[in-house]
Design goal:
Strands 1, 2, 3, 4, 5, 6, 7, 8 and 9 form a nine-stranded mixed sheet that branches. This protein has 31 helices and 13 strands. Among the domains are: 44-334, Alkaline Phosphatase, subunit A (3-Layer(aba) Sandwich), CATH 3.40.720; 617-724, Serine Threonine Protein Phosphatase 5, Tetratricopeptide repeat (Alpha Horseshoe). A hairpin with a 4-residue loop joins β12 and β13. α24 runs antiparallel to α25 (596-608) and α26 (619-629) packs parallel to α28 (652-663). The protein is globular. By secondary structure, it is an alpha/beta fold.
Length: 724
């Protein structure tokens, strides 16, 4: 062989060795991958024991199974909280919930002095981007700190937001994150993708809905698998996958009826704490291996930091580098801590805390629990009376680590409604005095509450009222149950009773709270009491709530004082949170002054606003009304239809659309629209408006029939006592 050929062969061999050893170290040492791309994929509410590579056969996950083949699998990974925001912030900070300050999904904010994963990676030269799929991970909580790009544009500045508007398909989040990755220049990059499948409500798309009809939860897992597969394909096409450190995990699991809990948030059993965890290393190192030792989600922070930015992350006592375990290092003796203040902040029950290791779990509750996880993985037999050997040591360890309860801060009324529609049905409960109930004894309350909400959503208001009254008789301090109760009372036309129930939320709230006052003001306006609305809004203003100007503008409009209404509306124009709603009231004022082009100008400004999300409720309705008065029937029809699409529970746009049809000699369409309002909305207001509209259309027989039906269904509503 010639010397040139020998040199070439030797060079090729050296290059091959260099490439194959990139990131590798000698056996047992901890591998590092400085400046490698970092991809974090979180699938919300995913139990590890509902995945094939954890032994489950009920669902197929080809994409995740392929990722597992390239990754290290951690057999026993645990969350620190069965709630989305606290758990994700433990991943992002390496700290327990009390350490980073966020202990529930609402009412808490990340401590400003605590550094986050994206902040530290950004300081290390990374560009950072994330896309989330649910309201509870909005960047305003502090979780968005350090991101160059944090796509949380599912906040729509409007009240009574529907579920579909506060969570979005993971496909949409994936597309937005891919666009950011593709549009950026330079590396390294950190990308965070959050999927909300399989969180409730379980609504998998086809073909998974049909394929997994017996378990829609599994159908949502299959949906998430497809999205992850699409994202992985994109990473491969961009040449990122092979070079990347990819972490796949879930924030918590799902009870699925175990221990009487349908979903998650209350209990600290394995069903909601044990999560999947995969770590794919650059170059496929350790692909297909598994780690049996117990690990925790806070370890992810330490692992990423030490892998890609050695020496640039703070050391956190008690955390472990997962790659060290993958390399064969012995696991330290430690216990994983978890907590849930959800029972206390939402229902006034006792908060819970837990520690567990590979063999045992201790749960601190009014009636403590101790489980042998090896012999009883379903945690059905509490063996605390037997006082097993590890019990006392675990109890002492938990007492050292358990943080004192800190009450949440003020929670806005819109936030509470959005959280409720995600399945967290009650927030801000006041516990009162004395010992707090054990959640084990009270879990049936949540079943009753969900049944009440289901009845109210499915056109059974009287049945819903009976459930709410049963709940409140048992525990009259559940603040938001009073709120939900007031809504269904309003639906059946019992306005005064609804107002009395809504006022209970003021009584049960902290003295400085303003959101309940504005909620009472909102209800006062709905039942025609603008003066009382103004009194509540003024009190909220005196307590420092700038949002009171929004409610005061509405109240002055209701009273016909356009000058004062305009003053209040313009006061909110400089507040980003109020600007679009303030523009809406200005448009109303101009419309009442018959300055229709000016009203349309304000409405156009709302739609042109770059904040993202949908326009405030009523925007498209008012555009439809203004355009109708400008003799632009076709444009008006389009706007009314858009309002109905976005807010199908609202009656204004349906009546407006019917009037447009009638004015265009489309009487059949007009009557069809009125019939749809009765069928699809079906509350007392829908019946009353429908009867008035049919009277206007000269169909007196149909109008009278609706009045009689309304009187039968809503006997307390005065609108059905005499002909309109």
């Amino acid at each position: 062989m010639s010397s040139l050929r020998l040199f070439s062969a030797a060079l090729s061999l050296l290059l091959a060795l260099a490439i194959s050893s990139c990131g590798k170290t000698k056996p047992g040492a901890v591998p590092t991958f400085p400046k490698a791309p970092v991809i974090l994929i979180s699938v919300d509410t995913l139990r590890s024991d509902h995945l094939p590579f954890y032994g489950y056969s009920g669902v197929e996950t080809p994409a995740l199974s392929a990722l597992r083949a390239d990754s290290v699998l951690f057999e026993k990974a645990y969350s620190h909280a069965p709630l989305t925001l606290p758990s994700h912030l433990s991943i992002f900070t390496g700290l327990l919930p009390a350490g980073h300050g966020v202990r529930d999904n609402l009412g808490y904010r990340l401590k400003p002095e605590v550094p986050t994963l994206p902040e530290l990676l950004k300081k290390s030269g990374y560009r950072t981007g994330g896309a989330i799929s649910a309201f509870v991970l909005l960047g305003s909580s502090g979780i968005g700190r350090g991101f160059d790009f944090y796509e949380d544009g599912l906040e729509a500045n409007k009240p009574h937001m529907a579920t579909s508007m506060i969570q979005r398909s993971g496909t949409e989040s994936e597309a937005r994150l891919e666009s950011w990755i593709a549009g950026g220049k330079g590396e390294p990059l950190f990308a965070f993708l959050h999927l909300y499948e399989p969180h409730t409500p379980y609504e998998p798309k086809e073909p998974y809905r049909s394929r997994y009809a017996s378990s829609l939860y599994d159908g949502e897992i299959a949906t998430a698998d497809e999205i992850v597969g699409s994202f992985v394909k994109f990473l491969k096409e961009k040449g990122i996958y092979d070079r990347a450190l990819i972490v796949f995990l879930s924030d918590h699991g799902e009870s699925l009826g175990e221990h009487g809990e349908e979903d998650h948030g209350v209990f600290l059993y394995r069903a909601t704490l044990q999560v999947p965890l995969l770590v794919k290393l650059p170059g496929g190192q350790y692909a297909g291996s598994a780690v049996k030792e117990t690990v925790q989600l806070a370890d992810v922070f330490t692992t990423i930091g030490e892998a890609v930015a050695p020496g640039e992350f703070p050391r956190i006592e008690g955390n472990v580098n997962l790659l060290a375990l993958a390399a064969g290092a012995p696991a330290p003796e430690r216990q994983v801590y978890a907590e849930s203040v959800f029972p206390r902040t939402h229902f006034g029950w006792a908060d819970l805390a837990s520690v567990l290791d590979r063999k045992w779990q201790y749960v601190d509750a009014p009636r403590p629990e101790f489980y042998d996880l090896g012999a009883d993985p379903g945690e059905t037999a509490n063996v605390i009376e037997k006082k097993p050997g590890p019990f006392r040591a675990m109890k002492v360890d938990l007492e050292k680590r358990k943080a004192a309860f800190e009450a949440p801060g003020a929670i806005g009324e819109e936030e509470k409604k959005k959280l409720a529609s995600l399945g967290y049905l009650s927030t801000g409960a006041t516990a009162g005095t004395g010992p707090l109930p054990d959640p084990k004894d009270e879990i049936g309350t949540i079943v009753l509450l969900r049944e009440a909400v289901s009845k109210s959503k499915h056109g059974q208001p009287q049945e819903a009222i009976a459930f709410f009254e049963k709940l409140l008789a048992k525990n009259p301090r559940m603040l938001d149950v009073w709120d939900l109760y007031s809504e269904v009372l309003l639906d059946v036309g019992r306005g005064e009773d609804a107002l009395a129930a809504r006022k209970k939320t003021v009584e049960l709230s902290p003295p400085a709270a303003t959101a309940p006052l504005l909620s009472v003001a909102d209800l006062c306006l709905q039942i025609g009491k603008p003066d009382e609305a103004m009194r509540n809004a003024q009190l909220a203003r005196e307590r420092g709530d700038t949002g009171a100007s929004d409610m005061l503008a509405r109240a002055w409009l209701e009273k016909g004082n356009l000058e004062n209404a305009e003053r209040e509306a313009r006061a909110g124009l400089n507040d980003p949170k109020l600007r679009r709603r303030s523009l809406l009231w200005i448009a109303w004022i101009d419309a009442k002054r018959k300055n229709l082009p000016k009203a349309l100008e304000a409405l156009d400004a709302i739609l042109a606003d770059g904040r993202g999300g949908d326009a405030p409720i009523g925007t498209h309705y008012l555009r439809g009304d203004v355009l109708a008065r400008m003799d632009r029937a076709e444009d008006s029809e389009r706007e009314f239809l858009e309002e109905i699409r976005l807010h199908p529970e609202q009656n204004d746009a349906r009546v407006g659309l019917a009037l447009v049809y009638a004015s265009s000699n489309r009487m059949a369409d007009a009557k069809r629209t009125i019939a749809e309002m009765v069928a699809k909305v079906g509350n007392a207001d829908a019946y009353a408006r429908a009867a008035r509209a049919l009277t206007f259309f000269q169909d007196r027989a149909a109008a009278e029939a609706l009045r009689r039906e309304g009187q039968k269904r809503f006997p307390a509503d005065p609108r059905f006592r005499t002909p309109a």
